[in-house]
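User: Before I run my own analysis I want an independent prediction to cross-check against. Here's the chain; please return only the structure tokens and, at the end, one sentence I can use as a sanity check.
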Amino acid sequence: MNQKKVLVGLLSASLLLSAATPLTTPTEAKAATKVVYKQSATSQLGQLKTVNSRIYTAPGSSKSVAASTKYTNEIFYVMKKATATGGETYYQISRLSDPKKPALGWIKSKSMKRSSYKVVTNVKKTRYIKGVGAGYTRPGGLQRNILLPSLASYKNTAFTNTMTVKVGTVTWYRATISGKTVWLPSTALMTKKITQVAAPVITPINRVARIDDGASLIYEDITKPATAEETSDLTGMTHIVKRQATYNKEVYFELGDYGWMKAADLSYYSYKPATATSKTLYLTGAGYGYTTPWGTKEDIVTKNLVKDAIFEVSKQATVGKTIWYYGQVKGLDMWISSTRTTTTKPTELEKPVEPEKPVEPEKPVEPEKPVEPEKPVDPEKPQAPVYKTESRQATLKSTATLYKDLATLTKKTIQTSEKTELFSINRSAKMGATTYYELSRMTTAGKNSVVGWVKTTDASAKSVVAAKSATATNFLNGKGFATNIAGATAASNKTVTNLSKYAASTFKVTKEQVIGGKTYYLGKIGSKYAWVEAQYFGNPFQYFNLRKVSNVTQAEMEAYLIKKKGTGIKTNNLYKNIPVFLEMQKKYGINAQFMLAHAIWETGWGGSQISQYKNNFFGYQAYDSCAMTCAMYFPTGTDGIQYYADAIYRKYLRVGAIYNNGTSPEGMNVKYATDKTWAFNIARLMAEMKAYDSAYYDNLAPSTIDPVLPNFNYDNVIPDNKPKPATYHTFDPGVVAKVTTDAKAQILPYVWGKQQAAYAKGTTITLAGTNNDVSGLWMKVMVGKTEAWITRSSIEIQNLGQATMEANVRNNPTVTGTAVLATLPAKQFFKLERDVKGKPVIQKDSKNTIWYKITIPGSTKTGWISSTIVQIYK
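Assistant: Structure tokens:
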């Protein structure tokens, strides 16, 4: 873990405020300036304006503490007022309604907001809870007075008042709910129970419908008004309606995948679905061809229904009383109203009557033959377009000309945004020697909308692999943007310019398309269809709000650890503390699944020594140079996990916190860990533990719990009566060192450790021990009963050795003919015996090997150990 800091309490112990330990209970207090304050009774409720507001021991006193977050966002009883000529006005605040009980302190008038408070005659009456808002410990309650964060589960519960007060103009009632004394405002209550509305009655129907007004609302769920959105993107098109719902005496039609609309907001006809037929009809030359029966401008295939053109019909449907036919006209598929067709074949032109042959005149002179007039040239018939299916994308060239249609080649103004827009090309048309592209874009309703036609020479086009149908559930990661065409980046193509507010939102994929090696998916964001690149999806746990509590159970958490590490994990400290994560979720409103995954990541599945010996699951104070020794010690797992939950809330998740960067693991990653994959890995563990439940999280509001700041007081020392790891070493009494330069002993063996004692050069000190992670640089000393550390570079150790391997201690300084008194394990420290001059006692054997006389660890016995298997500390 990076960037860990010790959480420091806001108030010193001497100024810690509570209802039981008031700052003062004066009757008439004199300030240091000799101003006399006169007290009088009042009846108000008040709150402190800011965290910088001061709480004084007495009116006019110089002794005070800052309110901090511990006393803001809370309502207090105000029953005394203190005034003085030339002085400020003060009010006394209390958490108790009895003026005879101790109060908290005095607040300057300018630092408070106050409301009148009046106890009125209580008329006992049973009311019912609406199910909205929260329940409070005091009337007029604020965030820190919340007792019941949500009243949703108490909807329609009887609430019989036992006390009534008026706060300002609002009446508040007190009653008991589930054994708890709760205050509610009159606005949270009703005189009658809410009659439960029956579920929608859904029946199959066949209708075609259009939206009359884009300001009308469409509902994803008609029982939830909050799911309503405007329908401006769905106007101008025809919808097939297959289901009708009756809910709360209102009739709704389902418009395909878009949602439900009130029938009263639609124009509609009965609809008889298409059936197969086969006939040849002829066009009258009026009307348009559409993609759907009773089509609108958004559904137009062509506006050029040439008179007498052949219409080969393959299907027919009935809208109201009008029959609509589906078939082909000159290679184009379309629906055409029967009112625009006829069964009569066009009449063929009559042949011109040949003139009578002239009667030959009598000879002798044969008249000249008249010159036959030239036959009139038939006018050139316009060439019909030859269409071809395409799969391309294109932008317009600066010199391009855009046409509304090919029949008239009427020019169309190119909008400014269209000059940079990327278009889809689904077909081309060849007319004579010229080929045109049909430019289109997708509407937010997911339909193709034709923009116009352009010569191929006027467009910069590229071939793309066509989109294909796909089915998947993805989750947006809150990054990037969405467009109306796959692969587009232009501002004019963006339908959602910033997806940050959709982090962890469900995205149901309907199509996918690969362009330039990148994959794009089509789906709905809210009620709008859009394309999103694959890189903008991810594990929803990486991007969701950590203040949305998990629905994971203790059994699921335990099963996950057993699945990953086997049944042996049951003896692990992390496994044993699983219930604490759920307890802290209730207390702090932080997702328990996240907290356990974080602990797994930090401890290596509970394998770290500091988690086992110090109940420190998150590496607090575990600096790199002294991880085990410096790490904070917590008496219980509950202490360690609460310390973590409190720090995460106050430093990272709370709005305005010092390291706040949003409430998701991804946001927290920025200021919490230098490892950029931290959030990814935490989210991976969460998903393995229990899959993301979008139905649960999408409808869950983030927690608003703002817990009271605990008074933490922890250090790094494992108590003597608690187990210690084998890496901790305690020296036998009498191991000493001489201070070689003025030195200090510190609370921690760390460069920034706080000084505990100072030693002058030449002082002889007793060494108490050391630990493996710091033994190369630090030695432990005792300052009174407090553990402290001194650097080895500032001392000269007089009589300390350590076995470099398993070593025998013998009764004489030789291997030959001696008895083994003890065997020391590798890394075992021991005390060297010293002579009268303070030097280690040594002897040489017959092979000239030096032997040291030592005290056998843990005893008063002495023996000899060979210099070949020990390290002597200096």
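Sanity check: The first helix runs from residue 554 to 565.
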